[in-house]
Amino acid sequence: MLAFFQQPWTWWVSGLLISVIMFLLLFFGQSFGFSSNLRTLCAVSGAGKLVSFFDFNWRSQMWNIAFLIGSVIGGFVSHYYLSNGSAVKISESTVSDLAKLGISAPKSIQPDELFSIESLFSLKGFIILALGGFLVGFGSRYAGGCTSGHAISGLSNLQLPSLITVIGFFIGGLLMTFVLLPLIL
Question: Integer distance in angstroms from the first to the last C-alpha of the chain?
């Protein structure tokens, strides 16, 4: 049974599961978004006493907190119990493009040049991760949600702002990949 879970699954399994989850969320009047958990966690910790943005009924978002906790537990279980230890499989053209930027093919999930402890404690690595984290946090707050919230939940609700935001995400991703990342690395 363990071998069944350790093998790569076809892409449509996750698509089907996302569709079922979205149907259930829409049916029960909820919306999906991962970045809203930060607001909920701040509200739980009492930040609503200082900032009105965090003053809301956070108990109505407990299902989202359960999703966050389940994601962390699921990542732990999949890494330590369902992974066979092999590196993520990427195309040879991607390996070639990464090598041009000075990044070797990943030996596990992420390339060590960007996501290792050694990289974190280098000045360049720390700045990249800190600035990237800030931009992701600021961007998700400014856009009214994260990529998963807009691309999955917003588009399934046929919201025009989500369509515009997702187009912006793609344009930003392309600019980062082909213009900024080569300049940074």
Answer: 43
Contact of 106 with 90, CB cutoff 8 Å: yes
pLDDT at 45 over 80: yes
C-alpha span between 136 and 49 (Å, rounded): 26
Q: What integer is the mean pLDDT of 20-47?
A: 84
Query: What is the C-alpha to C-alpha distance for residues 160 and 152, in angstroms, rounded to an integer?
Result: 13
DSSP state of 181: H
DSSP H helices in the chain: 2-6, 11-27, 36-44, 62-77, 92-100, 112-115, 117-120, 123-142, 147-148, 155-156, 160-175, 181-184
d(CA 21, CA 32): 9
Model confidence, pTM: 0.68
Q: Is 29 helix (H, G, I), strand (E, B) or coil?
A: coil
What length does the chain have? 185
Contact, 55 vs 48, CB < 8 A? yes
| Alpha-carbon gap, residue 37 to 141, rounded angstroms | 12
